[in-house]
Specification:
The chain is an alpha+beta fold and 108 residues long. 32% of the residues lie in helices and 29% in strands. The chain has three helices and six strands, in the order αββββαββα. A six-stranded antiparallel β-sheet has the order 1-2-3-4-6-5.
Length: 108
């Protein structure tokens, strides 16, 4: 499965200042790792965000967000974002929320 290279470049640019950034191919797409934890990624043309259960629940209140159902069942704490409906500021905010969540996890 191919993934949206332009979206990956936008996310990469947002995360570039971080010294703890890594990239890994996952889910047939690209995952962005922060401090060893997957924070977000690109699956096809969608942005996947790891927000944790509370953050995902809040994000689901936005019209551009839906549960991550990659496996056919919603994955707790993960969401998909329709980036065609997000401006740069909204995209940056969601990526920042994902980074904040993974930084709250125990170190790897």
């Amino acid at each position: 499965m191919a993934y949206d290279e332009q979206l990956a470049a936008r996310v990469r640019e947002l995360l570039a200042p971080r010294g703890d950034l890594g990239e890994r191919r996952m889910f047939g797409g690209m995952a962005f790792m922060v401090a060893g934890h997957m924070a977000c990624g690109i699956v096809g043309e969608e942005l996947m965000l790891r927000l944790g259960p509370d953050g995902a629940e809040r994000a689901l209140g936005l019209p551009q967000i839906r549960p991550m159902d990659f496996t056919g069942r919603p994955m707790k704490g993960f969401v998909f974002a329709d980036v065609a409906e997000l401006d740069d500021a909204a995209l940056a905010g969601l990526v920042e929320d994902a980074v904040d969540f993974v930084l709250s996890l125990p170190p790897k």
